[in-house]
Amino acid sequence: MVAIHPVVVALLPLIPSALGQTCATINPVNAATFASGYEGPRGIIFDIQGNLLTAEQSSYGLRYIQLTDNGGTNICVRSQKQLVADSSLNHGIALTPDGKKLFASSKTTVYSWDYDGTTGTVGNKKTVVTGMSTSGHVSRTLLVPKTQPNVLLVQVGSNGNLDTGAAQASSGRSQIRIFKLADLEAGSKAYTTGELLGYGIRNNAGIAEDIHGGIFSVNNGMDDMTVNGKDVHNTNPCEELNYHGRINDTSSPERGKSYGYPTCHSIYDPSVLPSPFNTQLKVGDTVTNGASSSTCTRVAPKLCFPAHTAPLDLKFNSGGSAAYVTFHGSWDKTPPDGYRVSRVAWNSQTGQPVASVTNTSAAQNIMYNANNAACPSGCFRPVGLAWSPSGKLFLSSDATNEIWVIGGAK
């Protein structure tokens, strides 16, 4: 069962139902599934007509869902169909702001289609980005920024837990690159030919744009961490919120810079470090894996989240006062942690989080399992987030094959 803040009560049991047969009645402090029976839903987006598109990882491809939203009191699936049948697609999905160009990704390739949201149809598939790593983290997050809609951002994670080659930007791993849409229309491009937005980010699966055009990502830190021979992995390193500058500002000091991986890692719990680091370091400070405290030339994170909670998506509300983060949950931690959706207070004027990097309470949990004992395989595991045209926050849960809608998120 799933609980939601501020009422903190268990809501709907995660019982499979026929897709298209469930309606969700919601209120400002509630959440509900409106349909289940998907096939590992990951990335989700709304088109400008208000239809929901999903990228599903279990050999399904992309789905097109028409919704009925009656004044915000109930939501139903009116119809749904397979939009693209492609078993290689596994996570990433994006639309241009005009709703006419659709992008989706496999582990090696980004594809595009001409898209018609009214009819729910696509044109011929076109290969636009090639040559991405085939091992390790295989999800590829995609984003077309609203403030610079003529580019596509493409993320690639590491090829393993500690990918030493990712220290080099030329590796094409653990980084975000920028591609001009006009160049992609002219022909496919190798991933490493894109402009480097940032690198040294182990697996920044969630990328979002704030109201000022600032690009932020949430990063999954390494597993099995040791410092000077001591195992500190259960509560370290932190999962990071990183800032990459404003997408339309090529002079941003963060542009093209390293965020430290695989050498430098941000501490979440200094108390478990060996002496003297347990008293010298604070949350967000840097250590070198397997070694000691290190001064690294890198862009430091803006926030630290608990270790191994696996943030996978990030979305800002329309006023820029909050960011929402999905935490897919841990496998490398006892007891299991994550499996929740959290809200981070944001300063809409500065375009930065309200809390400092040392604040371990910046993420306020709003939706989570009442009990994580069945995790990771038998519980709610959020992945993708999307705002509907009417201002409701939707999210996918791949482990339970569901799409949820949260009432009152703002």
TrEMBL record:
Coiled coil: none
Pyrroloquinoline quinone-dependent pyranose dehydrogenase beta-propeller domain span: 30-407
SUPFAM superfamilies associated with the record: Soluble quinoprotein glucose dehydrogenase
Keyword entries, A-Z: Signal
Signal sequence range: 1-20
Annotated Gene3D superfamilies: TolB, C-terminal domain (2.120.10.30)
Protein's name according to its UniProt entry: Pyrroloquinoline quinone-dependent pyranose dehydrogenase beta-propeller domain-containing protein
